[in-house]
Amino acid sequence: MSEMSKIVRTISNIIFPFIMIFGLYVIAHGHLTPGGGFQGGAVAASGCAMLLVAYGSTWIIDRMKVSRLSMFESIGALGFIGVAFLGLIIGGMFFNNFLVGSNILFGNIPKTGYTGANFNTGGVLPLMNFAVGVKVIAGLFVVVLVMAYASSLKEWKQ
Amino acid sequence: MIYNIPFIAVIAMIFVGLYAVLFKRNLVKMVIGITIIESGVNLFLITLGYREGGVAPIFTSAPSDVAGNAPSTMVLPVPQALTLTSIVIGVAVLALMLSLIMHIYRHYGTLDVRKIRRLKE
Amino acid sequence: MSLRTTVAIVMFSVLVVFFLFTAFMLSFGTPKEAKMDNYIIMHTQTETGTNSGVTTVVFDYRGFDTLGEATILFAAVAGVIMIFRRVKK
To answer: Is the per-residue pLDDT at B70 higher than 80?
Structure first.
């Protein structure tokens, strides 16, 4: 794909940080508001896909390697499995929520009923949200990039 | 009968998708039909868990008339979690189907189903 | 009759049967069995420490389904990269 005109590229540069901040907000507040890892990852990946459409896939694939991007996806998947195994080592069950009552990282317990929102609650859930969010962003961006680059060549070398 | 409109919409979506899969000859139109069937099944999963006059099962803030009795004014949360998984599975299957269609087009030169019948060298 | 008209007539009759079933037999606002969901809503804030009911069902009460879904997403991305492996400039 060839790149688009100068107006489209300038407006994409301006709007891209707002979309990424909104996507990371939906990922980070998954235990207080509707959202979570998968939903926020889809929002942020569509922001990255907007940049890909504005700049052309040949321009972007000259400056990024696909192997480096898929390393991010593996880090996200290993983080998710690692947190689950940490629950097996500490508590005794797979997927054990070992951060609920303790005061290490995310340990508060909210009062029952309709109170406000405290970010310090949640146990092991925000860590899982971040891991799945990184995984979904990297995975969807790699899929769109590889398919856009493969459809722009005149012939494929077999 | 007028209150069952979401279920009737599910039936309409599944049959539109089934018509597109069975009676069309272009490969991309068949993939679009599969996606429409997927959307209909996700809608069916969500409307199975609705309670009359209920709010979302989130305890952050709520209007004061539902704050009294907790589990009978809230919508069931388990079908929403199953729908999340189903949507992600639909995205994965769609990505693989479109990649295979790109390979078929480069190899045969056409997207008509009646011409892609034999193994071509 | 050809195959297309046979398939069309069968589909239309099944459509009529399903339409009559959903319009008169299913109930929209009242789910039948809700004991597990009532337990989950009542014990979310004390056992897991979050405010949201949907996120705890996805990651805490039914974490194995999320593990399988992450595996499917990883396998799909790996499959797409592997299909376009030999396409170079």
So the answer is: no
Q: Which of A55-64, A105-114, C43-52 has the lowest mean pLDDT?
A: A105-114
Q: HSE on the CB side for C76, CA within 13 Å?
A: 26
Chain A contact for B56 (CB, 8 A cutoff): yes
Angle at CA of residue B108, ends B106 and B109, nearest 5°: 70
With a cut of 0.95, is the ipTM above it? no
What gap in Å lies between CA A155 and CA A78, rounded to an integer?
37
Helix (H, G, I), strand (E, B) or coil at C52: strand
Burial of B78 (0-12, 13-18, 19+ CB in 10 A): buried
CB-nearest to C48 from A77, A81, A123 is A123
Contact A114 B56 (CB under 8 A): no
Looking at residue B94, what is its pLDDT?
Answer: 96
Contact B88 A38 (CB under 8 A): yes
Query: Which pTM value belongs to this model?
Result: 0.90
**Cβ–Cβ below 8 Å for C67 and A80:** yes
